[in-house]
Amino acid sequence: MALLIMKKILVLNGPNLNLLGTREPEQYGRDTLADVERLCKETGAKHGVEIECRQSNHEGVLIDWIQEAGREVAAGNMLGVVMNPGAYTHTSIALHDAIKGASVPVIELHISNVHAREEFRHHSYISPAARGIIVGLGVKGYTLAIAALVP
Ligand code: CA2
Predict the structure, then answer these.
(1) Number of separate domains in the chain
(2) By the 8 A CB rule, do 110 and 136 touch?
(3) pTM for the complete prediction?
(4) Contact 65/94 with Cβ under 8 angstroms?
(5) How many whole angstroms from 125 Cα to the centroid of ligand 1?
(6) Would you state the pLDDT for residue 117?
(7) Going by CA atoms, what residue is nearest to atom 6 of ligand 1?
(8) In a domain, 133, yes or no
(9) Cβ < 6 Å from ligand 1: which residues?
(10) What is the pLDDT of residue 5?
(11) Could you say which of 21, 128, 130, 147 has the lowest number of CB atoms within 10 Å?
């Protein structure tokens, strides 16, 4: 009898996303991070994939998790990473290098339309290393990003 092992998708949220739903609802909506993580798990269940959600305000921790995801993808246990890198999007060459180095499929996601906001949000260090990008579709973007990683 064949054993069916569910593959995993890691959902990573970067700095300040733990504040979702508490301030700036016009920019990020009213859902909290807990709401977003619940939505991701429901979406995973619909697609038959396990969803693991993590959030950190620390660049090095996010890098460690990307490297860990790279090992999981290489071992055949993980499909990839959905990542909202928060403001590190616009600053972090280290995260860019981590994604490239780990050879992990990453869907970069932003809740707001960064291109309709301040100019410093228009450039992403993550995009050239990402498999795909979802921008400005609110928290629904997380569901689309998960679907994009499912074969
Ligand atoms: O639109 C997005 O998802 C962003 O990645 C969110 C980041 C921002 O720096 C990026 O340019 C675009 C900011 C996340 C901070 O989230 C907060 C939520 C509520 C209250 C305060 C911050």
Answers:
(1) 1
(2) yes
(3) 0.97
(4) no
(5) 16
(6) 98
(7) 86
(8) yes
(9) 16-17, 19-20, 22-24, 28, 84, 86-87, 89, 110-112, 114, 121
(10) 80
(11) 128
